[in-house]
Amino acid sequence: APKIGVLALQGDVREHVRALESSGAGAMPVRRQEELDAVDALVIPGGESTTMWKLATAFELLEPLRMRIKEGMPAYGSCAGMIMLADRIEGGIEGQQTLGGIDMVVRRNAFGRQIDSFEADLDFASRGLMRAVFIRAPWVESVGPEVDVLGRARREDTVSDPGDRIVAVRQGPLLATSFHPELTGDARVHSYFVEMVREF
Ligand code: GLN
Fold first, then answer.
1. The pTM of the whole model exceeds 0.80
2. CATH assignment of the domain containing 144
3. Which residues are annotated as a binding site?
4. How far is CA 191 from CA 27, 57, 139, 148, in A?
5. ipTM for this model
6. Centre of ligand 1 from the C-alpha of residue 86, in Å
7. What pLDDT digit, counting tens, does each position of 30-41 carry?
8. Whose CA is nearest to atom 5 of ligand 1?
């Protein structure tokens, strides 16, 4: 089974570990470079991308993470993790850096104010309808030619902006979702990622 790390600087690490294990992968938290070196792939959980960036810098993981991604390590980022995998962000704080890897612009806190969360049904990667939980979620503003859009959703209670937004993308070995599949007990996104990891 592939060994998949979950970046454990912040966020709901245990839920991701459980979802990966139920999808047939070995899963372990990653906090140090030695732990990063030992995994085949990485999940970057939700949380707060500004904090995650600062912690990754403090733990001396920012450059090792960038290096692994550049070398082609499969990675899946959820919510703040999606922001971390974006080449460009809108609405970041002064000086905020990402790891990059996916040729897209991601807008932080795009669906509403800081405390806002909501749920929506979406079709992820043509695998049928899935209930998705969004918490202070970003959306994908635009994507480059190498990026596949795997899911779109809208916030039904917003009058001002009724359009569908891109909330799931893939570029080669990199996957990102605006939502939190680890919170709904639906392992389809994690299974999709484990399949990706087996391919690479
Ligand atoms: N708003 C957060 C950020 O900018 C993301 C929220 C989340 O991961 N649930 O990082």
1. yes
2. 3.40.50.880
3. 47-49, 108, 135-136
4. 13, 30, 22, 18
5. 0.95
6. 13
7. 999 999 999 999
8. 80
